[in-house]
């Protein structure tokens, strides 16, 4: 089977890289302008911008404000990427993350991973500052507790109990979002060359962390009701991994939920093969307390439970946590000291203040109602487009969809980028990002913007 053709921006980046390494452009030379390359090669502006940003991620060129892009003074040797392929793959994922975090005027982020900002306004972050400042003047000028702000950890104990997870405050470590929790776990458990299982498709920033650690990543196919059990068992027997990173509920990117029978089966396999399960439940506020969670069934024996407030309060607060055994929590807290000293007590106090407000329950109820309405409307629109939807929960921040006539979501995303539509193609969520995928992650609110349907129709898609 022949390899899939590379997207245009990758082809352009590779061409410019060859010229840099061959000496056509030397250290310090300015590259042709975006306009010049677009005109001479017939590419759209966004394609050229993407290629230049990929060269920046590869460490070959640097932007200079108001002047353009220049070849770096010390370009890595041609063999350097082969000597450190994990770092190269990690930096390419960083570039993909930068593309997803883009927020340029006029662009529509169809693949966005967050609710609209106006939906989160009901949390009233603007009212928390004075309460936080008044209540913590003695502590806000120093590093906080190594485990994190104690009142928030006590509140989390109660919230975890609501979803069936029994924990003690000493079993909870607060972090800079769920992403830092993952980073600490990878640093603690994964040696270079260590085998790690992850959902496939799965959370692509995790892929970058694992590549950076030099891990060998094995994907477990994600089905509509959770991991493919046969593939999971085969991987456990063949690879003998220590960790499996998975999302039981509101899975990113597919939106799927783990079924109760499959949860029991996963735990049986974990016990048989001495496997630790890292359960990312960053969207816990969007799923019922009674939904199947591995950590609730296991009691944090073989599970590490990750949470976050980015999707229901604010990503800017950067507050997350990991709940695990008490001994492991102490070790992770020590590792946190070595890497970042402490998490932000100010942000943690802000979250605790918001969670304590009487209006917080109303905010979550309204947020779920808005998401449910948007999800059902998005399903109806996608049906009119003739799209296939992977799974259809009543409300979901992620819709995994594909459109007839577009078998390569990466190529579709590149064409859409030239029309100021930013998509999240399925291959970036895969362990093998070179594999062609027809699927894309869609935000149920953003996908309803008329600009998306017009752009898809312009590219030959079915009008709604």
From TrEMBL:
Keyword field: Coiled coil, DNA-binding, Pyridoxal phosphate, Transcription, Transcription regulation
Record-linked InterPro entries: Aminotransferase_I/II_large, HTH_trans_reg/aminotransferase, PyrdxlP-dep_Trfase, PyrdxlP-dep_Trfase_major, Tscrpt_reg_HTH_GntR, WH-like_DNA-bd_sf, WH_DNA-bd_sf
Coiled coil, from the record: 357-384
Entry keyword Transcription: yes
Any one GO MF annotation of this record: DNA-binding transcription factor activity
Domain annotation HTH gntR-type: ranges: 6-74
Keyword RNA-binding assigned: no
One protein family per Pfam: GntR
Similarity comment: family membership: In the C-terminal section; belongs to the class-I pyridoxal-phosphate-dependent aminotransferase family.
Protein name, per record: GntR family transcriptional regulator
Species annotation: Pulveribacter suum
